[in-house]
Structure formats: C-alpha cells, structure tokens
TrEMBL record, chains A, B:
<dbReference type="GO" id="GO:0030788">
    <property type="term" value="F:precorrin-2 C20-methyltransferase activity"/>
</dbReference>
<keyword id="KW-0949">S-adenosyl-L-methionine</keyword>
<comment type="similarity">
    <text>Belongs to the precorrin methyltransferase family.</text>
</comment>
<protein>
    <submittedName>
        <fullName>Cobalt-factor II C20-methyltransferase</fullName>
    </submittedName>
</protein>
<comment type="pathway">
    <text>Cofactor biosynthesis; adenosylcobalamin biosynthesis.</text>
</comment>
<dbReference type="InterPro" id="IPR035996">
    <property type="entry name" value="4pyrrol_Methylase_sf"/>
</dbReference>
<dbReference type="InterPro" id="IPR012382">
    <property type="entry name" value="CobI/CbiL"/>
</dbReference>
<keyword id="KW-0489">Methyltransferase</keyword>
<dbReference type="InterPro" id="IPR006364">
    <property type="entry name" value="CobI/CbiL/CobIJ_dom"/>
</dbReference>
<feature type="domain" description="Tetrapyrrole methylase">
    <location>
        <begin position="5"/>
        <end position="208"/>
    </location>
</feature>
<dbReference type="GO" id="GO:0009236">
    <property type="term" value="P:cobalamin biosynthetic process"/>
</dbReference>
<keyword id="KW-0169">Cobalamin biosynthesis</keyword>
<dbReference type="InterPro" id="IPR014777">
    <property type="entry name" value="4pyrrole_Mease_sub1"/>
</dbReference>
<keyword id="KW-0808">Transferase</keyword>
<dbReference type="InterPro" id="IPR014776">
    <property type="entry name" value="4pyrrole_Mease_sub2"/>
</dbReference>
<dbReference type="GO" id="GO:0032259">
    <property type="term" value="P:methylation"/>
</dbReference>
<dbReference type="InterPro" id="IPR000878">
    <property type="entry name" value="4pyrrol_Mease"/>
</dbReference>
Length: 229, 229
C-alpha cells in the first residue's frame, strides 16, 4: 500500500470562522485528523485546537496527539506524536494535523513536518492567521505600516531582552509572555502604547491597553502583547 | 439616515481559497465593496485585490478606489479614497473595503481605518493571512519556532539595514524588497539559507532558495524573501 499524504492545517487564532476555505475543505477531505493536546486528564482532553475544531462540525474522525507544554522531553514527545501519525500514513490514510494560529509560526507542526520530510512523506501545509495578526484586528489599529519594522519575540528570558528590542523604533510583539511576571511594572516605565490580549477570538477573550487593568490580571498561557512603535 | 458600518476584510495572500469563512460572509453581506487599485488605464483596472475578489464570485457590487503605489501625495490619495467611502456610508450603506494579505499589516486599509475612526464611523476588521505566512507554507519550512525571534522590515533603505538585522540570530522577512537591486550579490555573501517568492498563491507564483536562480530574475513588486535564522 502506498503511503498516505500529510497535510498541516492551520485553524487560525481561536474564532472558528477564521479558518480559511482551503483549510476547512482539507479537513473535510482528510481520512483522519490529529489535534495536539497538552494533556488528557480523567478522560478530559485539554486542547485549544480541539476547542476550535469541534465548532467546525467536520465529520472526519479526529484523535488527540498528547504533547505536553513543558519544555522537558520535547523531542521525545514529538517523535512519539510523529510515530502515531506515521502508523496511519502507512495504512494509506491521508492525515491532517491541525494547529491553532498558523502551522509554521511558533507551532508544534513544524517539528512534525521535519520528521515527515525525513521519512519521505508527501506533505502539504495550509497557512492560517497567527494570533498577533488577529490581535491587530481586535485592537482596530495597524500592527505596522509604511516602512516601520516589526519584531516578534517568544518566551523572553527577561525584561532586558524586551527593553533592548524597544530601543529600536519598531513594533514589538511578545508571544508566550506568561513566562515573565510583573508586566504592569515594566510597562509603566515605558513610554509606549500597547495592546494586551488573552484568548483572542474565544468567548473568554479579554483585552486592554490600560496598565492599571493589567495590574489585576493573572496572565494565562494564551496571551500576547503588542507594544507599538 | 444613520451612518453605515465600515468593515475591513482581508483577502489573504493571493489564493482565493485562503480567505477566511468570516471574511467571505462579510463580503456577501455588505451593500458595497471597495477594492484598492493602483491605477485605471484605458478602462483596465490594475488591482491585485480585485484579481482575488473576482475569483470569489461574490454578488455584492464592487468599485475601485484608486491609490497609486508611488510615495507621492499618499495622504491626498487616502483622503480622496476615504471621502468616496464616506459618501456611501452616509447613504446608510454597510461598506466593505478589501485588502490583499492582512488588513492591518503594511496595508492601505490602516490609513482608511484611522480616518473612519476620526469621523466616528462604526468600524470592524476581519484579519487575513499575511504574504510571509503563506510563504512559510509554500516553502514547507517553519518561519520561526521555539524561542527564535523574527524581524520584518519593509521598503529597506539599503543592504546595510538588512545586514544589521542579520547580525542578530533571528529570522528576517523583507517586504517590498524590489526597492533594492543586486539581491543575488548580497545573498551570496551571507551564510544563511533563504526562500524567495513572487506572486505567492497566484498561477504566476515563482519561488527559489537558490541564489543562482535569483541572478536571472527581475524582482517584481509582489515579492518577498525570508532569510532564516
């Protein structure tokens, strides 16, 4: 039997209607869909991708790929995930793997794709809207324009790294910002406008550009900030 | 009569199927669609947005907004474009303005939005996939992953600016790269892999990661390059 095809499908930032027409079609036409899940606890699957996927009412069978969010044993978890996918591809199935946001922008799918390419699997990727782009739309303000530069950093090591990036006259996006504490103290010292968002595109969405509001928040994993040039 | 609503709808990078479900619905439900056109010559409208739009078979009436791509008199052209839109909003029409790529990422719509907000128009923005994200999918390689940073620059003043950005260990995206000549000479000196693309998502798409191929190309306006970290 010939090997099935692997297709990476980006779901977009959270609002199920922000998937592309092409992405939705690919999910409908796949034989099987895998979605990354951070854990399965007492039969409850913790997966932001699945939260989006289930709202699309796609009839294709779907299964979780457990990939914990901790940095530990990352390679092993990716390898295990790819092995599960590979088993299905070997049965001749065309398999879709979904990602929240885009599929190749700070995404788990990038690691899966590399393993699939090394195993000579026929691959295709359907892009999607990254969270920071959807945040721009929610904030109703250009993320960047003219010849202004943009910098995106993820999982910053400390505020020094952010301060350094702010010295240049560019818009700065910080992803996985929850790795740092005391954002409100830091932002108070800066002379820049910002837009902070949690769980963009979901019913739990919360956003603010007021540092006083941020003082009271516990920043969750699905949050990001745009600090404007 | 009460003022109509303005909705910015991102069309995505070129492939008409890369519009979102939400964007398509908004176009179907609008009373009128405006699309930016760089010129109208002998009854021929030059508009990349319209090239995408017409493939979507939306029945809503559509009209061009002429905004030349030259830097000259930019403000005047935006103001004229907004005045045309405002006239229709005053008739109570709900007006969609489309953008190729995203609506607030190096887009004309950002300027229109600011004018509309100042005129107290009710606005909404539906995001879309920027060209560099679609380029990542075409190249089948992660744009960025882990805690790697990304920088995007547009209309660079010279190769010095690009060289400076490459000193940091980050992925670099250069938009409107056609403002500079001799890309192949520059890239030959760098020890970085890259992915160059023209007219992403259209039948005229061309891409390469080989500097020898680039030597022979005349770089068009709709092109960009990702230089990997």
């Amino acid at each position: 039997m010939s090997l099935g095809k692997l297709i990476g499908v980006a779901l977009g930032p959270g609002d199920p209607e922000l998937i592309t027409l092409k992405g939705l079609k690919a999910l409908q036409n796949a034989d099987l869909i895998f979605y990354p899940a951070s854990s399965i606890k007492e039969w409850k699957v913790i997966s932001f991708s699945y939260d989006i996927l289930k709202q699309l009412n796609v009839e294709t069978e779907s299964l979780p790929l457990v990939i914990p969010m901790t940095g530990k044993n990352r390679e092993m978890h990716y390898q295990k995930a790819f092995d599960e996918i590979h088993e299905e591809l070997k049965k001749g199935k065309n398999v879709a793997v979904v990602s929240e946001g885009d599929a190749l922008f700070y995404s788990t799918f990038g690691y899966i794709l590399k393993m699939a390419q090394e195993a000579n699997v026929d691959c295709k990727v359907i892009p999607g809207i990254p969270a920071f782009i959807a945040t721009g739309a929610e904030g109703e303000k250009p993320v960047t324009e003219g010849n202004q530069a943009l910098k995106v950093i993820a999982r910053p090591n400390g505020f020094e790294e952010i301060e350094e990036a702010l010295k240049e006259n560019q818009t700065l996006v910080v992803m996985k910002m929850s790795v740092l504490d005391n954002w409100s103290d830091f932002l108070e010292k800066q002379n820049r406008s910002f837009f902070y968002i949690e769980r963009v595109g979901t019913p739990q969405q919360y956003s603010t550009s007021d540092v006083q509001d941020l003082k009271l928040r516990t920043i969750p994993y699905f949050s990001l900030i745009i600090i404007y040039a």
